[in-house]
Amino acid sequence: MPTEQKKAVVAEVTEHLKEANSVFLTDFTGLNVEDISELRRAFAGVDVRYRVVKNTLARLSVKESGCDELLEYLEGPTGIAFGYDDPTAPAKVIKEFSKKNENLKVRACLFEGVLFGEERVGQLANLPSRNEMLAKLSGVLQAPVSNLAYALNGVLSKLVYALDAVKEQKEKES
């Protein structure tokens, strides 16, 4: 590969490393082209970028981006998954894909700036997505307001019943 192309690859991977909320280093030994294409489609479906990069270029990118803790995991065939909006999305795709094809292995993960080994990826895959967390938070924030409205409605209903009873009693007396 000519030097200009290598520089472009390094610049692209460096940019992805800086922008991503999570980075997963995978070993795809034993996967054929069809399997890797299927994996790429699965990643693309959840807004995750998957890139196979030569380790020498990946090392340069990792150094430029300041993610030096990933250097020791750049050995052998390496694929890099970059998670953006939902940092758990790559872990979920990897977990699901690994059920069908056990050849995909995770070497390490840089999740929100914290380095995890392959044993923790399963735990990351079980975390709720960002949208699920926002929905739960919305429900928690809405609950007190809903309960207050329900309580006030109950008080008003009791007041209306009491006034109605007083009205009926007055009508009977007159």
Give a description of the structure.
The chain has 174 residues and is α+β, with helices and mostly antiparallel strands. It folds into two domains: 125 residues, Ribosomal protein L10, N-terminal RNA-binding domain (Alpha-Beta Plaits), CATH 3.30.70; 47 residues. Helix content is 59%, strand content 16%. The protein contains six helices and five strands. The chain has a five-stranded antiparallel beta sheet with strand order 2-3-1-4-5, sandwiched between helices. A hairpin with a 2-residue loop joins β4 and β5. α1 crosses α3. The longest helix has 44 residues. The chain is elongated and about 105 Å long. The chain starts with a helix and ends with a helix. The mean pLDDT is 83.
Keyphrases for this structure?
2 domains; Alpha-Beta Plaits; five-stranded antiparallel β-sheet; 6 helices; 174 residues
